[in-house]
Amino acid sequence: MKCAIVYPQIETNFLKRKLFINNNSTIPFHGIGLIISYCNQNNENVDFIDARSFNNYKNFADKIKKYDLVGYSIMSVNAEKAFNLIKVNKDINKNVIICVGGVDPSIRPDIYVDNDLIDQVICGEGEIAFLNLVKMVKNNYLVEKLVFGEKIEDLDTISFIDRSLFPHETIYDYHYYPSENRLDIKMEPKNPYFTFITSRVCKYNCSFCQPVSKKIFGKKERVRTVKNFIDELKDIRRKHGMNSFSIMDDNFLQNRDWIEKFIEMYEETHMDLKFELLSRVDHIYNNRDLIPKLKDIGFFATFIGFESGSDKILKYLKKGTTAILNEKSAQILYDNKISTVASMMFGFPNETHEDYKLTIDFVSKFKKMNFVFNAYNPLPGSALYNELEEKGLIYEKSKNIRFYVFIIIPRIKHVNYFSVNWTILKCGLISSKNNFERGFRIMAFIFSNIVIIFLTLYFILYEKINDNMK
Ligand code: SF4
Asked: What's the 348 CA to ligand 1 centre distance in angstroms?
């Protein structure tokens, strides 16, 4: 019996392929990779198929037709593409067993359960559930439609991901501009580069994000041992000559004892590699004495969500941080010269000009960071999305628009997106590195204003016509 798991991000449009599909960019392969590892260690062979490598459905059909069981790992952004591929898959082989799993099926299983082309929907973790499915199909047992994935308590028991299945990714290399005392991130490959995850579950409750990860991983935190993680680093360094890496845990710095042990054990490996990690404001502050030590062993960059300079907004987002903590942590990153990609969001229903001003003040103070400014885009399944949806505050038609890079899509009623756009422009100009970036931001501002006018009118008209027809 032949089994495969598909990453369904196919793009058949030539222009979009050129612009947006990068076969070397990070994909959420940890989930897929670990399922494949777990099946392999249990003597079941599962192939990986990256749909990004196909530029039409026919080629995909040719590849997929020999498989008897195919799993699709789906996120909300590629759900539509996954449905197309599943249809192609069933058309070419009507006996194939189709299973779906991943973030989107876990947060809205109903739409997958209702789809007749799908044989099984796995909610939550996939290792044990997918292995069971492989065995059931092999033995011709009846497949259940909806399964809640059993969790693996001891993460060390899963074999390391076979990295040869996945392309190496590109790192944003460290670059320091002494003249401006500016810490920047420069696009420069430092391959081979690999990503790692050391734990499951984020215990925080940011309303724009949770309970999505809790629905997938549950509420109890599980962490790999430091030794297991270091063994994997050494293994990949030896097999693939790893040159840099990224730790993708939502909150790598949350367990102080673990971090101290990691510093100690990693130093002993003498690997001397640059690495980046995701962090939270409070973790940077609470571990401020460990930041220089982490820097000594290679920590050079972090992605961090400050989100807002306003306590009111941080509280609304249930971020568990404050404006003053944002400033203290930003200062720690500045002092330690850690390249920082800082996320700021705008466009919440209760956000006022005063709140925007507080955020602008924060950006002005730490303008040498690499800021990412976004209009808030409600994540389906998150608490805030559900709240806005219940109040009827999300434009129905905006839900179909997935594309939002660089331009602002008006998604929430009563939010003044012109103010959002204006604030993003101001923040962008304050923190821009050079005239090229300033020019780009001005272009994005003009383009976004046009998009806001047209889409808002379209969304309002669509809802009015719909209301009248009821
Ligand atoms: S935004 Fe980050 S810290 Fe907050 S709940 Fe999500 S993963 Fe956790």
From this structure: 17
